[in-house]
Design brief:
Elements: E1 3-9, H1 20-28, H2 33-43, H3 51-58, H4 67-76, H5 83-92, E2 97-108, H6 109-115, E3 125-132, E4 139-144, H7 149-162, E5 169-173, H8 179-187, E6 191-194, H9 199-202, E7 207-208, H10 218-225, H11 230-239
Helix pairs in contact: 1-4, 4-6, 7-8
């Protein structure tokens, strides 16, 4: 029987090695980006991950950003290897399972689309959507922010449109902006994969994978969703001309021990 799955991935530092906001700031010579983001986080003014959208709309230094600047930044982003290969394998299917691969990111859509041009169809990318003034080209409004609960809404919209059961949803992310959607996917018995060892995300995700290759997320998908044993995983990779050269599987316990009273 044919089984359909939905695999959704974050973008910044999940499919890439960069933070879009930091790269944009460096390109335009805007200082103190990390300090600005930290300040917004301390004040809880915006949801985690939506800091760049807030700065683009409200910070005086970012008011000079135009659509072309966002596209230019996207073209400089360093991506993980084999993103196109991952999308191809998922679309082709594995045995009787096919995967719809989508990217949901808090980064502006223009950045993500430019970075993934030719690798992921534009129709499979959901990012923060901005509106521009027709006369000046200035960012006039934020129409959608795919961060925090916005990511939950985006994933649910995709799942409903595709008719995928909650237990066949896979979400891949790296940071605090992914926490809400990971908790949501976990509640539906889906699979959550962290690509960072940061404690706040790794202790929520069901699996953690550290690699510079986008294909690495296939390993927990094959094992957890399709029931593959390690030998079957290696065999599938080899059938596609790929080799898992090194794999270290560890379990980490975080402990805080105090003196007995």
């Amino acid at each position: 029987m044919h089984r359909r799955y939905l695999l959704v991935s974050d973008f910044d530092q999940t499919l890439s090695f960069n933070d879009s906001g930091r790269l944009l700031s460096e390109m335009l010579g805007i200082a103190r980006f990390d300090e600005k983001v930290a300040g917004l986080s301390r004040l809880n003014l915006v949801q985690e991950g939506a800091e760049l959208a807030y700065l683009l709309r409200h910070d005086p230094e970012f008011r000079r950003v135009r659509r072309d600047d966002l596209v230019a930044v996207g073209r400089t982003i360093r991506l993980k290897r084999n993103i196109a290969r991952l999308a191809e394998l998922l679309a082709t299917g594995i045995e009787d399972a096919t995967f719809d691969f989508h990217v949901v990111s808090a980064a502006p859509e223009e950045i993500v689309l430019a970075a993934l041009d030719g690798l992921v169809p534009a129709s499979h990318v959901v990012g923060t959507r901005l509106a521009y003034d027709a006369d000046t080209g200035e960012i006039a409004a934020v129409e959608r922010v795919a961060a925090g609960y916005g990511k939950v809404a985006a994933v649910e919209a995709l799942r409903s449109a595709l008719g995928v059961p909650r237990e066949r949803v896979v979400y891949v992310g790296d940071g605090s902006s992914d926490l809400h959607v990971m908790l949501h996917v976990n509640r539906g018995d889906g699979l959550t994969i962290a690509v960072s060892e940061a404690r706040h995300i790794a202790e929520i995700a069901r699996r953690t994978v550290i690699s510079d290759d986008a294909l690495s997320v296939l390993v927990p998908v094959l094992e957890e969703m399709l029931g593959y044993a390690p030998g079957q995983v290696r065999a599938l990779f080899e059938r596609h001309g790929l080799t898992i050269q090194e794999r270290n599987k560890v379990r980490t316990d975080w402990l805080t021990i105090g003196s007995a009273a």
